[in-house]
C-alpha cells in the first residue's frame, strides 16, 4: 500500500491520491461498457487503507471494493473517487449509502456524473449526511478518462474515433491501392492498444477486400473489440480473416435486398448479420449504442470515413503521419469527398496534441462540436 506524507497540505495531497484513483480506474479499460471507468481510494492518517476499481457492468462499484478492504478503519477516513458516487439503484445499490454507512468523514470527487440519475444528487446526499465533499480535483484528467462515457450520456451515441495512417503528402496507399505498411511497427502496436480499449472497430467492404484485416488487439491478455463491417451490396470474399470468429466476434451490416446467399454463408460461419433498409454510419452507431457500447473505432477507408464524419459519428481523430512521400494524383486520401467547397466549411480540430511513435508522428484532436450540457 502507498503511504503519503502527513505534512503535505490537503491541496497537495488531494491531487496525488486522485491520480492514483485514475491509475486504478485504467485497469478496466475496454471492459466496463456501458459503465464508466472508476477508481476509489480510502485514506486515513496518510495511509491507504482500502482501494479498488470497477471491473465491469454487473460487478460492484469501485467504492464497494475500497470500503470492503478498509473495513471499520473507514470511519473518519477520506474517500477519493474520480466520478461522483451513484445515488440510485441499478445493478448495484447506491454507493452514497455505502459511504455514509461506513462513516467516512470526507469525500473527494474528480467530476460530477453526467448521468441525469446522478448529476449532483450523489454530492447532495453525502452533504446532507454531514460529510465534507470536495469536487473538481484533477477534473480535466477525470473527464478525459471517461470522455466516451460522457459523450454517450449527453448525446445517446457511442464516442467515435477515426484512426488513419498517411504519408507526409496525405496518402493512405499508392495509386495501385498498396498500403502495407504506411507506418512503423511501433505505430501499428499503438493501434493494437487502441483496439483493446474500444468496444467495436468498423470498416467498409473495400477494406475487407483490399487488406483482409484481423482487427484484433493481437494480445491474449487484452480485450478484442467487436469487428464491424458495413457493406451495402455484400460483395465480399468468402475467405476472410474476419469470418473466423474463434478469437473475436464479427458483425456485418448490410441492406435488406443484398446477397441473400452470402448472408446465409456468413451466419453459418458464426458471423452476425443485420439487415437495414438504409445503411448509414448513424444507423450503425445507433445499434451499437443499444448494445451498450462506449467507444467505437473507425478504421475505414476515405469514402466511409467521410460519411461517418458527415453523419456526426466521429468525435476524435487519431492521425498517424509517416515521414514518407509517394505522390500520385489519384492515390487515396484518409477522408473522401465531404462536399465542401470553401475552406471556411472545413471540419476543425481542437485540443490538439502530437507525439512521436517510432519514426512516425501521432496527431490527436477533437472535432469541434456543440458544448456539453453539464
TrEMBL record:
Catalyzed chemical reaction(s): 2,5-diamino-6-hydroxy-4-(5-phosphoribosylamino)-pyrimidine + H2O + H(+) = 5-amino-6-(5-phospho-D-ribosylamino)uracil + NH4(+); 5-amino-6-(5-phospho-D-ribitylamino)uracil + NADP(+) = 5-amino-6-(5-phospho-D-ribosylamino)uracil + NADPH + H(+)
Binding site for Zn(2+): 61, 86, 95
UniProt cross-references to InterPro entries, sorted A to Z: APOBEC/CMP_deaminase_Zn-bd (IPR016192), CMP_dCMP_dom (IPR002125), Cytidine_deaminase-like (IPR016193), DHFR-like_dom_sf (IPR024072), Eubact_RibD (IPR004794), RibD_C (IPR011549), RibDG_C (IPR002734), Riboflavin_Biosynth_HTPR (IPR050765)
Superkingdom of the organism of origin: Bacteria
Details of cofactor binding: Binds 1 zinc ion.
Coiled coil (residue ranges): none
Residue ranges occupied by any CMP/dCMP-type deaminase domain in the UniProt entry: 12-134
Active site, renumbered: 63
Pathway: Cofactor biosynthesis; riboflavin biosynthesis; 5-amino-6-(D-ribitylamino)uracil from GTP: step 2/4; Cofactor biosynthesis; riboflavin biosynthesis; 5-amino-6-(D-ribitylamino)uracil from GTP: step 3/4
SUPFAM superfamilies assigned: Cytidine deaminase-like, Dihydrofolate reductase-like
Entry binding sites for NADP(+): 165, 181, 195, 207, 211
Record NCBIfam families: eubact_ribD, ribD_Cterm
Protein purpose: Converts 2,5-diamino-6-(ribosylamino)-4(3h)-pyrimidinone 5'-phosphate into 5-amino-6-(ribosylamino)-2,4(1h,3h)-pyrimidinedione 5'-phosphate.
Family: In the N-terminal section; belongs to the cytidine and deoxycytidylate deaminase family.
Record's protein name: Riboflavin biosynthesis protein RibD
Species of the source: Trichodesmium erythraeum (strain IMS101)
